[in-house]
Amino acid sequence: MANVTLDYVGNLNRETLDSANDSAYAEGAVRGLSEAVVRRISGDKKEPPWMLEHRLKSLKVFLEKPMPGWGPDLSKLNLDEIIYYARPGEIKPSHNWEDVPADIKRTFEKLGIPEAERKYLAGAGAQYESENVYHRLKEKWGEKGVIFEDMDTALQKYPDLVKQYFMRCVPMHDHKFAALHGAVWSGGTFIYIPEGVNVDQPLQAYFRMNAQSMGQFEHTLIIVENGAQGSYIEGCSAPKYESPSIHAGLVEVFVKEGARFRYSSVENWSRNTYNLNTKRALVDRNGVMEWVGGNMGSGATMLYPCSILRGEGARADHLGIAFANKDQIQDTGAKVIHAAPNTSSKVVMKSISKNGGKSVYRGLLRILKGAKGSKAQVRCDALLLDDHSISDTIPDIRIEENDISIAHEATVGKISEEQLFYAMSRGLSEDEAIAMIVNGFIEPIVKAMPLEYAVEMNRLIELEMEEAGAIG
Asked: What residues pair up with 235 in beta bridges, in sequence order?
């Protein structure tokens, strides 16, 4: 299906994604959330007092805030049955793949992470359950002052820098799952790019859940100083179980004056996972923030990357694909807040619904008073592959300034008999014709991804199309 091929993703299949390792380490793990669990996390990681205090305040906020009353139904997510913290043995982050335990290393090898690092990446990290198992930055970037660490290590090595930015972009009071994250976060990625440095190879981290009823709460903190540039790729997956799991990670990106950063992610959690992730960027004068994302898995997703354009001339581009198959709700979108003059944004979101799946675009576009000369474009395109799938568009546009330009467009369509007939008259089978049409539909998003992830995205969509037949 893909127009390009690479060996390390060419053999990707559902078995690779859904297979699980032994998880005896989780059998005695505490289920449910309490102050004791929070204190254990902080104690195991030997955190400074201020972080424990932050965790305990977040726990209090979490217990006080209600569950969201909108979006996908979360009633089957029993938070008292979740394992919030599990360590897969006595593992310390390593800079050498050979030091990673054999069964964990095999999992990441199947997913292609070591090979991708060798061929394409400036650095790579890997997290398994609540712990980072591998992290390494190529030497030439370290010599230029770039920092690429897992968050637990960054907190130990750069405590003042972490404290300056940690949950300043997304505070604990933002919503219930931000507070939950603030209480139980573990692992994640810390990136610091010094002023004027252009990291022209992507940095990457891959997050893997393994045990049943697990929760993963990695924290990603990225600081891009004045005039610096970089990009980051995030991959996520988990085996398939009957009981619910939860992913409530949090991403904070600080794009300083004249800086540029691209954040690409392919989230392919299993159908029993509730993906309740939060991503947000603060963009200063003439800075550029780019979000490129794909959501393939999870039974229910609530994810709306946000850009706050707080400096004059700042820009944000949001590109995303969501694929909703049987028993899936992909409630995704984007939020852009224009808080300064002459800012600009472009949102392009594509969704595919199949076998009764439901996709929702939920977006916020806000132009604050004083943001004169701002320009914004929003385009949402939905493709339905049968008569019983659903697509909704829920835009929220708030304008507080007159001297601005806004365009919003939304389309919903199906694959027509004429399109199929034309493609099949050229010698394609029905499934091949549908695949070609779908590939053309998602092409604007896929081509914005790094090559190896564009291939993976195409392959994941192909797997979804193969499941229970191409057109449901």
From this structure: 206, 266
Strands, DSSP E only, in 335-404? 335-338, 344-353, 358-367, 375-384, 390-399
Find out whether 324 and 342 touch, Cβ atoms under 8 Å: no
> Which residue in this structure is represented by tokens 């707080």?
310
Q: CA–CA separation, 136 vs 122, rounded Å?
A: 9
> Which residue is listed with tokens 């800075």?
287
CA-closest candidate to residue 178, choices 264, 85, 61: 61
Q: Determine the longest span between alpha carbons in the chain, in angstroms.
A: 69
User: What counts of helices (H) and strands (E) characterise the chain?
Assistant: 13, 24
pLDDT, residue 118, reads 56
Q: Are strands 123-128 and 131-137 parallel, antiparallel or unpaired?
A: antiparallel
Residue 108 DSSP class: H
Report how far residue 30's alpha carbon sits from residue 87's, in angstroms, rounded to the nearest whole number.
12
Name the pairing type of β-strands 188-193 and 147-150: antiparallel
> Which pLDDT does position 21 carry in this prediction?
57
Encoded amino acid at 442, one letter? I
Q: Which is it for the CA torsion 428, 432, 434, 438, positive or negative?
A: negative
61-75 pLDDT, tens digit per residue, is 999 999 998 999 999
The alpha-helical segments, DSSP class H, found in 149-253 are: 151-157, 159-165, 176-184
Tens of pLDDT, residue by residue over 412-440, are: 888 777 877 777 888 888 777 777 777 77
CA-to-CA dists, residue 401 to 10, 155, 310, 361, 367, angstroms: 50, 41, 15, 25, 7
CA distance linking residue 313 with residue 98, whole number of Å:
47
Q: Which residue has the tokens 């954040």?
A: 263
> Could you tell me if 83 and 26 are in contact, meaning their C-beta atoms sit under 8 angstroms apart?
yes
Cβ atoms 285, 260 nearer than 8 A: no
Lookup: tokens for 463:
């797997």
- 147 with 154: CB under 8 angstroms? yes
Radius of gyration in angstroms for the set of CA atoms belonging to the chain, rounded to a whole number: 21
Q: Pairing state of beta strands 131-137 and 219-224?
A: unpaired
